[in-house]
Amino acid sequence: MLTREMDSFPYPFKGEQYRYSNNSVPMTRPSSIEITPRYTEEIQLKRNLLNNYPERCFQTMPHTLKGQWEAVDLVTEHLAAFFPSQFALQKNGDHWTFENKLLGEAFTFTYGDETTIPYQPLDFIGRHVQEDLIFMLERDGDLHLDAGQLCFPANWSLAFNLGMRFKEIHHPIPGFKEEELDERILRFLMRMEAGSPWERLNWSLMAGNKLDTSLETFHEWGKERKNVTEVNAGDLVHLRVEVQKLFRLPQSNGILFTIHTHLLAIKDLAANRDWLQQFYHILKELPEHIAEYKGIALYQKPLLSYLKGKLT
Amino acid sequence: MTFVPGKRKYLICGDPSGINLVQPIIQNIMEQHLSFEVMEIKDEEKVRNWLDHQKMGCYLYVSAAWPEIERLKNITEDIGFSEEEVQFLGRGEQMIKVFCCRCHGLTELARSDASEITCSQCGLLLSVSDHYSSLRKAYLGYVAKL
CA nearest A60 in B: which residue? Predict the structure, then answer.
């Protein structure tokens, strides 16, 4: 891995053990988007997935267009403000021009008019950012997953989860409901206000280095879990970290989640002695239900042996 | 089914055997001189119309064979009854749908058979979970064997 990538990797661990928690913190640099050296490669991958598997990667409820446009507004503003040498945005009333200088593309459209852009609004802007974009709408006193562009999911299905309430989405996570985390996080999200964005990190382990680990293709990529040995764990297993950013959209009163996924081979993680030590302790102590849900159980032992070998 | 006290009016809806099963609750309502109406499901439009014209504060009991329950659920959702305002009692074998994690195809089967099934669309062996989507009206089927 490139040194600059290592330096900016969102290392997620604190302390000597890991438990589920609401680890959201107020954002210090309130950009919904980050651009990494892998931009061009990942955008190409995203666009290929969207073109080849549209039902897997993009789903919306019909009442979300207004919220989707708001997401376009937020994301294009951030791109132009935080990355002015790569993006530009000109607004002349509802007449907007968005320029992606990295890809040499420019679009002129009428804000609020879907016929002036090539895709639905969220799908349109999502094709310019490495992040997955999830739009949750507040209705019936609950948050519903009502639109999303999802190319790099951590083993879940947007097509199945569409329209679900927050707690329904998280139903499969063992221990999540029992510890009332679903209720606490939902209340936290419902209290979120426009102009005060939050972010959190979520992690899991992957056997392999694919970003597009959808539930729909689990029968293919999931098999790698069985191939992990003490010898190949450093190359094969990757720490997968999602930087999730949360923005309340004032007009629709929805919440936009942007999810930027990063992968780090365990051998690169192990090159940092502090990370190696901390990760080893956390993995060794990880409760069974968390290891199972995060897809680690099948190769936890060979991975621990690999890490132990690196420590001695 | 349980009697929920303190409602302005009680609505009972079902097929004849179903209404019979709600008799203990009807008894309870009558003893307390509470307002209620009973409607037999014969004509769906009539039931829809009847439910549509009810005022706030009603509590609904629906008791029928499972296929009827599924249809009535759609109607009560459409009209705007919340989950807290309705109790359903299904009779006989309940059919459920399973959403294939690979191809999104739906496979219908009896709830009592639901553990592992073969997707009727792509043939993948699925393990049926308890993760339910109200939009798809189906349970998620995961890859059963890697």
Answer: B135
Q: How many CB atoms lie within 10 A of CB A212?
A: 19
Cβ A240 vs Cβ A267: under 8 Å: no
The encoded tokens of residue B37 equal: 């109406």
Q: 3-state class of A203 per DSSP?
A: strand
Pairing of β A255-265 and β A132-139 = antiparallel
Cα separation, A256 vs A272, in Å, equals 34
SS3 content of chain B, % helix, strand, coil (to 5): 30, 35, 35
* CB-CB under 8 Å, A161 with B101: no
Query: Long-range pairs for A270-274 at CB < 8 Å and ≥24 separation?
Result: A270/A234, A270/A307, A270/A310, A271/A6, A272/A6
Q: Which residue's structure tokens are 């993760």?
A: B131
Domain interval for residue A300: 3-311
- Which one-letter amino acid corresponds to residue B140? L
Which residues in chain A belong to E strands, given as ranges? 25-26, 58-60, 87-92, 95-100, 105-110, 132-139, 142-149, 198-207, 237-248, 255-265
Tell me which residues of A are annotated as active site: 200
Separation of alpha carbons A150 and A159, rounded Å: 10
| Sheet of strand A25-26: strand arrangement | A25-26, A198-207, A237-248, A255-265, A132-139, A142-149, A58-60
SS3 content of chain A, % helix, strand, coil (to 5): 40, 25, 35
All CATH 3.40.50 domain ranges in chain B, comma separated: 9-91
For residue A196, give Cα distances in angstroms to A78, A83, A144, A210. Answer: 14, 21, 20, 33
pLDDT-derived band at A2 (thresholds 50, 70, 90) equals low
The mean pLDDT value of chain A amounts to 95
For chain A, what is the domain count? 1
Please state which architecture CATH assigns to domain B9-91: 3-Layer(aba) Sandwich (3.40)
pTM here is: 0.89
Give the three-state DSSP class for B66.
Answer: helix
What is the distance of C-alpha B47 from the center of its chain?
Answer: 15
- Closest chain B residue to the Cα of A146, Cα to Cα: B135
Q: Which of A157, A164, A168 sits opposite B101 (nearest CB)?
A: A157
Q: Between these two residues, A227 and A173, which has the higher pLDDT value?
A: A227
Distance CA B96, CA A98 (A): 47
Do residues A308 and A284 make contact, with C-beta atoms less than 8 angstroms apart?
A: no
